[in-house]
Input
Amino acid sequence: MACAGCGTGVDGKPAGCKSNGGCSSGGCNRLNVFDWLSNIPLSDSLAPFDIIEVSFNNGSRKDFFRNSTKQVFEKGEMVAVEGVSGFDVGMVNLTGELVKLQMKKRRVEDTPEVKKLLRRASTEDMNRMTDNKNREKEALIKARAIARSLGLEMKLAEVEIQADGRKATFFYTADDRVDFRELIKVYASEFRVKVEMRQIGARQEAGKVGGIGSCGRELCCATWLTDFKSVNTTAARYQNLSINQAKLSGQCGRLKCCLNYELDTYLDALKDFPDDCDVIETASGNATLQKRDIFKNLMWYSYDNSNKQYPLTITRVKEIRQLNRQGVKPEELKAVEVVSSKPNKEADLGFADVVGQISLRSLEKASQKRKQKSRDKQKEQQKEKQKGGAPQQQGQPQQGGGRPQRDQRPKNEARGEQKQGEQKPRGEQRQRSGNEPRGEQKPRQEQRPRNEQRGEQKPRGEQAPRNEQKGEPRPPRQDQKPREPREPREPREGGKPQQAGGHSGQHHHKNRNRPPRKPDNKPDNKQ
Output
């Protein structure tokens, strides 16, 4: 259920109460109340209670009003109520029989002097309230500056302007009494409203400002706590808390209100501990009480000349106290051994979260092991190949001038090297003639087996150095037959003549579209 503040504004834009529509969850109201009797119907003879609780300024202030209009109002509706020389606009917070309990809690009597509820808030009322609420921040800044100029020791916490703009309430905190007679006159002339000064405490100020406590939740004084009881350091001592002002203080600078929440439980548990056992006498000396552990029912004692503490049970302390009354001093305290209970080991689920627990060294070692394994496998494979290929290659002639070649080269590279090896030196190369037709080209030399081309393989240690393989020209093969010069083919119709020559297959596709080479006029002396 949404409140009227979440409706559309003047220009058709959603106005909203800046709480993201959380009215049903209590987000729009600081001191929200849940009406758990709203769905229970009343008998026909009983009339609904005619007083309604209305909250102002998002629940920071509440008041009771009599519903004289006989209309039914639901929680969250905006209504116009009787104010000081005018009207004010608030939100219905509670209706029905629970209002009686709230009035009894706040000690408000049902008398004819209770103010009246006028009507449902109209659009004009909401617009006037919005305009006046926008003036509150500016008024607070000016009010603080005026109070500082007058030299008054007070702190303004909040300014609340009535919906019709005729009255303004200034909430302030001060340690001593403040003479603000002159201040009221300045405020009245500056803001043109009726001024009301209201002093509040530090805890109420923290409730109006709001915030998050050390527990991680919203402040109790800003959500549900209305009765601020006094808190002493005695409550901290009963609960065995260290007297640290920084940890025991809240947002308001006073002791935390939550110190009183569990105080009764601690007082009930301390009833079983003896009261007159602060000092007990033993043969080793007097032992002084240091602390009481209500969870384990132990009392911790220490000697005057030692810092060691001895845990004793309540029964043992009572026995020693009874012996001391009889004038007997026991020889020892008979301290209890306190064993810290370790939590049971969780069952192994088959996996472990090792994020952030793996070092880089372990990864490096694993990668090194993998590389070493791969190297060993390669060496074994090479040895097996050498053993298996040696008897087959012993009876075959060695090709390529005894040049050892690597086994791991691809076929294309091996063929390219073979063709390069077949080329003769420049002085012995035959001259190509461009006039011979290409159609008379003889078939290429029959390809020999791969083993004959490559020759017998030798281990790496017996291979010739690379500079000898690449730097020196290769000698011609003795068993290779000289090729006859090729005649160029006749040019096709509409096509360009192709160049004749024994180029390797690697460059043959580049010479197809080139023009024919002009015949050399020089005599062939080198053939």
